[in-house]
Amino acid sequence: MEEGRSSRRSLRILGVLLLLAGFVLLALPLSWYVHPLPSPYEHKDDRGSPIASPPADVVPLRSQDDLVAAILRDHPRTPREIARRAHDLVAARFDTCYDSRFTFQQNWMIALVGLVWPKLAFHNGTNLVRYSSCGLCSQTNGTMVLALARLGVKARLVNMPGHTPAEVEWDGRWHLVDPHYGFFPDESEDDIDVLTVARNPELVTRLYGDLLTPTVLELTRQSYAAYGLDPKPPMPTGSSNEPVLLVLKNVAMILQWVLPIGMLVLGGAILLRGARSGRSVFRFLLGALLALGAAELVVRQFHWAPTAWDPDFGPIQEPGERTIVSDEQRAVSRWTTGGIRRAAPPDPGRPAILALGDSFTEALMVNDEDVFTQRLEEALTADGLPYQVLNAGKSSASVADYVHLAPVYEKRFDPRWTVVQLRESDLGADAWSDRRAHFRRAPDGLLEVVGAPREQNPLWTALHPLRTRSTLVQYGPVRALEFAAAFRREPPLFRAASAPVEELDEETAPQKRTYPILDELDLLNEAYGGRLTLLYVAPFDPAHLEAPATGAEAYVMRHCRERGWSCVNTRETWPEFAARHEAPFGFPATGYNRGHLNAGGHHAAAALLAAEIERLSSEGRL
C-alpha cells in the first residue's frame, strides 16, 4: 500500500517537472519573437572594442528573402552589379566580431550543444541575418554567397587558414569579393581571385590596406600565404556551411518546438491520469507521435507548400523550394525569389516579360512544363525571341493588386512587357475587398487604389517555422475549413432538419453590385505605361461558344478595341475544345469543365500569347 502511494507520488513529481521544463523550454523561443535579443558578441569586435549598430536602412533585413529583395530594389542588371549590391548590403548589415553563436533564447538545443562543440553553435549564412548583426568572415561572406546563389549568380567560399573570403563569377572568371572586410574589386582589380592573392601575398596590402588595422592586415596576409602553400578546393557553389551541420541545425530548429510540447502533453497526462495509468498514457502518446510522424511523411508527398514572407508581396512560395498540391491533381511547381514561379532565378541579362494573375496564373495544380508562362517562353525562344517570362501569379490577386504593386514590379524585375490575366472576379468583388489592396472612390470622385498592410502578423511569425516544416500543421486547418464550407453548401435534401430556404421575389432580392470596370482598366494601363497585354480567361460553355453581348468580358474586349490595346481572349480557342469534346477547365479530381485551367487550357493561352507577342515584336513595340 505504502509502496503504491510512493510510486504515485514519484509520478506526480515527474509530471510536475515535465510541465515546468516544457513551459520553460517553450517560453525561450517564444520570447524571442516578442522581444528579440542580440547574439552575445554582437556589440564587440575581435579586439573587444564596442562597435556601432548597423545603418537604419539595413536593420530591417532579417532574412535571406529581405536581403534578396533589397539587392533587386536598385535594379542591378549584370552579375557584377548584382554582386556589388549584395556586397554593399552585407558589409553594411554586419560588423566584424569574434563570433556569433545561437543563444538559449534563439535555440536552446543548439546553444547547449555549442557548450561542448562550439562550431555547431555558429550561425550560418541562412540564420545569421535573422539573429545577429555581426559575425565571422565565413558567416558574413556566406550570407552574401547564399543571396547571390538565389539570384542566379555563381558564388562560393574559399576556406583558408584564419580567413574565409568569397569568390563571385562574372565575365567568365572568378573574382575576389570580401564583404566581411569591405573589399570589392574595382576595374583595375577585376583579374584577381583568391588563388592569385595567395600566390602573391604582398597584394594583400594593396587590396586591404585602407580597410584593416596593421595587425589584422598582417594576419590576413599570413592567411593568404599559408593557403598559397597548400591550396584546398573552394566550397561548392552557393554553399555557406557544411551539409552535415546544416542538417543538424535544421533538425534542432524543429525539435526546439516538438520536445517542449511533448513534455507538456506527457506531464499533463501523468498528472491527470494518475500513476497507475502513466505507462498506458506514455504508450498512447508514443503511438500518437509515431502515427503523426507517419502521416506527415505520407501527406507531404501530396501537399508541400512552404511559404516565406516578402516585405512587398506578403506571404509567397518559399524561394528555392518546390511546391506540391493535389487538390485538383497532383502537380509540382518550383519557385525562386520574389514569388516568381521558375526553376532558376531570373537572368538579369535577358529582357523579361512579366506575367501577373490570380490562381489561374499561379497554377499550382499544373506542372511547371505545362503552365502557360513556361510554354510561352519556349514558343518565343523557338521563334528566336530572347525573352524570359516571369510568372508572378498569386492566388486571390486582383487588378487592384497589379496597380498597387506596379512600381515594385518595375524596380525588381524591370519588365520589357507585362501580361495581365483577367477574369470577371478580378475586376469585381476581389478588387474591392478591403481585406487586401483594393479600389475606392477618392473625395474628388476619381478611382484610387489603397494598399493592403504588409506588416507581418506576430502570430503568423511565431507559428511560421512550424507551419513551414509541417504539412499537417499547414494544410490540416485549410482542409478543415474547406470541409466546413462544403457542409454549409450541402443541399437541404441531405439535411432534413434544416430550415426551408426562403425564396425572394425580384422586388426583395438584393441587387447585384456593379463595378467601374472601364475605370479600373484605364488605371491598370496607366500603371504599366501602356506596355501590357490583357489575357482574358473566358468561361467555357460548349453549347454557347459565342462571346456575350454584355458583362465584364464584353466590356473588356470592347474597351480594348476602342483604345487600341493589346488583348487576347481565350474564347478564340473554345471551338477547338468543343470539337474535340474536351474542356479547358477541370481535372480528374474536379470533373469536366470545373475548377482551374488544365494543361490543355494553358497550352491554348500560351499559343494565343505567343502570336500576340510576336506581332508586337515585329511592330517594334517590345
Descriptive overview:
By secondary structure, the chain is of the alpha/beta class. The protein has helices at 2-34, 64-73, 79-93, 108-116, 128-131, 137-150, 194-199, 203-208, 214-229, 243-273, 278-300, 359-362, 372-382, 399-404, 406-413, 424-427, 458-469, 471-488, 517-527, 552-563, 574-579, 599-618; strands at residues 95-96, 134-135, 155-157, 166-170, 173-177, 307-310, 314-317, 322-325, 331-336, 340-341, 352-356, 388-391, 417-422, 438-441, 447-450, 532-536, 566-569. The longest helix is centred in the N-terminal third of the chain and has 33 residues, at 2-34. It is globular, with a radius of gyration of 29 Å.
Give a short overview.
The protein is an alpha/beta fold and 622 residues long. It has 22 helices and 17 strands.
Helices and strands, with pairings:
Elements: H1 2-34, H2 64-73, H3 79-93, E1 95-96, H4 108-116, H5 128-131, E2 134-135, H6 137-150, E3 155-157, E4 166-170, E5 173-177, H7 194-199, H8 203-208, H9 214-229, H10 243-273, H11 278-300, E6 307-310, E7 314-317, E8 322-325, E9 331-336, E10 340-341, E11 352-356, H12 359-362, H13 372-382, E12 388-391, H14 399-404, H15 406-413, E13 417-422, H16 424-427, E14 438-441, E15 447-450, H17 458-469, H18 471-488, H19 517-527, E16 532-536, H20 552-563, E17 566-569, H21 574-579, H22 599-618
Parallel strand pairs: 1-2, 11-12, 11-13, 13-16, 16-17
Antiparallel strand pairs: 3-4, 4-5, 6-7, 8-9, 9-10, 14-15
The overall pLDDT, averaged over residues, is 84
For the largest beta sheet, what order do the strands appear in spatially? 12-11-13-16-17
Intertermini distance = 90 Å
Rounded to an integer, what's the Rg over CA atoms? Answer: 29 Å
* Basic shape: globular
Task: Tell me the major beta sheet.
Answer: 5 strands, parallel
